[in-house]
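Known limitations

Files may contain more than one protein. Parsers should not assume a single record per file. Below, a two-record file is shown to illustrate correct handling: read the sequence, read the token line, then continue until end of file.
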Amino acid sequence: MSQNIYDNPGFFEGYAQLPRSQQGLAGAPEWPALQAMLPSLTGKRVLDLGCGYGWFCRAVREQGAAETVGIDLSAKMLARAAELTQDAGIHYRQGDLSRLELIGESFDLVYSSLALHYLPEVAPLFTQIHGALVAGGRFVFSVEHPIFTCPQPQGWLVDEEGRRSWPINGYQAEGKRVSNWLADGVIKYHRTLGTYLNALIAAGFEIRHVEDWGPTVEQIAANPALAEEAERPMLLLVSVQKPLA
């Protein structure tokens, strides 16, 4: 089961102060790149996993989507989304993405922004998404980049003969990472780029686009704090498609 950190009062209040919380998609510098990866939305049925305040749900409806479903683990996030939404074509529901079942549901696009790195495993979810997409449907998502979720080595594992092997918390050491971001004890999961992509391939997807996102020169000029993200990628953006046949 995923940690429900967004219902932590301190975390929720801190998150509410972030630009992407106050400004919506306009406050997310990676949004133009993600938007370019989306298919035409006219008349389409869309699922947003980890929908948060519902910014994406409302945006795709404005772009012509017929119906949007937003799922989030946090009751506080869903309550805020409901406050901001006055649209009968948008439906919110609570759910744990690590246990999500989409049997009998059908979507043209599944989208997820900065949610999947909270899941202990992604392969079961990818299988559910593949099954729920129509032929030719797209799955577009962003996660914290594996280079970012992998901290500097804090030591080395040693075998029984005293030989040093791989570094503890190094890039190849996948698993739980605990940080103090907006609240103490925030749990995320590090996995390699290969693990993400191979899980998508095993689920039956075709890779369409992979981007080690970084800010443009213009974005850095407008917000110098983004210069750090040009030094090493903080976000990974991926677009995959369910085959037509």
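...continuing to the second record:
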Amino acid sequence: MTTIYGLKNCDTCKKAMKWLDRFGVAYTFVDYRDHKPTPETLLEWAAQLGGLEALVNKSSTTWRQLPDNRKAAASDAEWKLLLREYPQLIRRPVVVTDDGVVTQGFSDNGFKKRFGKT
């Protein structure tokens, strides 16, 4: 089963779930404010998405409000700490399918391709 990680009040996550419902794709939703991803999970996602920094939504309000010294994480350990402390910084939704493939974000065409729907 597909797992969608995001925030329950996120418009993009809502769009992704509506798309999955419309095309009959079974999924579970995990709000990562309530269930923070473990450091191991963050590393698994980062391995497929281009590193921990690639997980960060740098256009978010949360990111803009961070002090500059927090934005200048210099190691994976610092990025993991930042993402565990502020899970809302993770670009959303994070989509994990049964085969272990991880993607971020939502677009109609991207999901059609990902889930083999036309």
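Parsers that stop after the first record will miss the second one. For reference, the second record is described as follows. The first strand starts at residue 2 and ends at 6.
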